[in-house]
Automatic annotation (TrEMBL):
It holds the Pfam family FMN_red. One of its GO terms (cellular component) is membrane. This is Flavodoxin-like domain-containing protein. GO terms for molecular function: FMN binding; NAD(P)H dehydrogenase (quinone) activity. InterPro entries: Flavodoxin/NO_synth (IPR008254), Flavoprotein-like_sf (IPR029039), FMN_Rdtase-like_dom (IPR005025). It comes from Bacillus siamensis. Residues 3-162 form the Flavodoxin-like domain.
């Protein structure tokens, strides 16, 4: 199975989260995981993917313009139904606790539904998420005055999302064979 992680990031907080997600997904020996900053992300690769995970910093409660512009280039894939039934998941960082994490993740999920993707969140019975409560994907608050770009808890949450996506995608692709 092939999984593509696409992220936007200016200050590397979201980059660290994206890398943790890719790491978690790679724990599945059957997974080939690709990861790209949105500026390098190749839309032509999407057709060959079984799962796509995209994320960004929250900008005023919504998707960063860099990632949104990239998502808006996926119209021809929508027209051809190319992303239907691919697994999707999202992630986000913000500087403050109530700074729009959930709003941004909802906004990231919406185009996945329009594309006909099967969206995977992070349930409460995932140990890393039991207290975090990040159900819509991996959403992590990264205070700007912190010495670390991403906490160990945030990395664990990211790995958990990657793990879940590869598990669900593996089950789906096995069922289709
Ligand atoms: C234009 C812009 C708008 C932002 N809006 C918010 C916001 O509404 N709430 C918030 O908590 N952080 C906001 N931030 C901060 C970023 O979401 C936060 O620092 C994020 O972790 C940066 O990720 P990065 O280092 O991967 O770029 C904003 C940053 C920018 C540049």
């Amino acid at each position: 199975m092939k999984i593509y992680v696409v992220y936007d990031s200016e200050g590397e907080h979201t980059k660290y989260l994206a890398e943790a997600i890719a790491e978690g997904a790679s724990e599945n020996a059957d997974a080939e995981v690709l990861i790209d900053h949105v500026d390098q992300a190749d839309i032509r690769k999407l057709k060959d993917m079984d799962a796509i995970i995209w994320g960004c910093p929250g900008h005023f409660g919504t998707i960063s313009s860099g990632l949104k512009a990239w998502i808006d280039r996926l119209g021809y894939l929508w027209a051809e139904g190319e992303l239907i039934d691919k697994v999707g998941a999202v992630f986000c960082t913000t500087a403050t606790t109530h700074g729009g994490l959930e709003m941004t993740m909802h906004n990231l999920i919406t185009p996945m539904f329009h594309q006909g993707m099967i969206v995977v969140g992070l349930p409460g019975n995932v140990p890393e998420n039991a207290l975090y409560g990040s159900y819509y994907g991996a959403g992590v608050t990264c205070p700007v005055d912190s010495d670390v770009l991403m906490t160990e808890e945030g990395l664990q949450l990211g790995r958990a999302l990657g793990r879940r996506v590869s598990q669900v995608t593996g089950n789906l692709t096995a069922g289709r064979q």
